[in-house]
Design goal:
With about 350 residues, the protein is of the alpha+beta class. Helix content is about 20%, strand content about 40%. The chain has a 5-stranded mixed barrel with strand order 1-2-3-5-4. Strands 8-7-6-9-10 form a 5-stranded antiparallel sheet. Strands 13-12-11-14-15 form a 5-stranded antiparallel sheet.
Amino acid sequence: METNYSDEDFEALLSKYDYKFKKGDIVKGVVCAYESDGAIVDIGSKCTAFVPSYEVSADRKAKVEEVLEKGTEYEFLITQDCDENGKFTLSYKKVHLAHTWAELAKIKEDDETISVTITQTVKGGLIVDVSGVQGFIPQGQLCARETVCNVGDKIDVKILTIDKAQNNLILSNRKVYETNMAETRKNVFAQVEVGQVVKGEVVRITDFGAFVNIGGVDCLLPLSQISWKWVEHPTDLLSVGQEINVEIIDIDKEKQRISLSLKNTEPDPWLKAEEELKEGDIKEGIITRIKAFGAFVEVMPGVEALLPQSALSEFQNAKGVIYKVGDKVDTKIIKFNPKDKRISLGLPTDDV
């Protein structure tokens, strides 16, 4: 049955739904239609409500229809009272940002990790987007190994400081890394023990050794533990990215350090030398190093002995040659101390 309303009845009916909207109110409204410069929203008022495109998102490149879906209800802030054209001006951006700041404050309180998008690289660090809020990651708060510093990439961070009034949001990627590393170290130290042989990856090489990653923890492989043979520099035998089996030789839980040995995963050549060599033996060896005090000669694989400079000079004078690294030379074992892994050489008397 159709009901006919007089103008007065219709006006009275509308007044029941005409709430006292005013500037500063947060209202709910349904997106009804799009225009070239914004969206029309039904907030339950006689006046039209309109969201300009610049009040839709903090991202100026964002399209209105991608942020505000037609037929969907959102919260808006009334930024201008109903004007002479019968239209309220709304902002979705301001409400969204207010919620975001509140969420960020809770995230900081709970020390949670969030994912943000890199929008710009600057001299002092990175500018990132956090749901429409601009944040800054100082260079010192970046973890070089984990961080990908390309615009558009995502990065995990924790909040260092937050100040909505100053629009200031400082973030840290390093703090995430340190938190993860603390948990990783805890797990690794709970599982490893001295004497255990584990697989690791060489991640860094220095003059004094190499760092090998074991389950996410970088452990030191000292230069002296790389090989039974003399190693001048770790790069002689190792390269970054190489996977190797190593033995855990020391665990310092207080300092959170683990020391490794690569040579312990191979048979000790001095044990074989103790069985096969004795003082007085004549052995042909290869000169591996020449120092001011003499030459080191490999008399068995992995076993080096010292030929003093006086004996070397005497032999060179007698033969009329100058020996160099890689040359073969006949030697005589003068002293053999297998416990200290030391052999002193001389020259066969017949050769002098």
